[in-house]
Amino acid sequence: MDFYTTLTLCLFSFSAGFIDAIIGGGGLIQTPAILFTLPQYPVPTLIGTTKIPSLSGSLMGAFQYSQRVKIVGKFIAPMMVIAFGSSWLGSLVLTRVPNGFMKPLALIILIAVFIYTLTRKNFGNVTDQYVSDRQKRLRMWLMGGIVGFYDGFFGPGTGSFLVLGFIALIGFDFLKASAHAKLVNASTNLASVLFFVSEGKLLYAFAIPMAIANLTGAFIGARLAILKGNQFIRVFFLFIIAATILRFSWDLITQ
Question: One of this protein's Pfam families, by short name (predicted)?
Answer without folding.
Answer: TauE
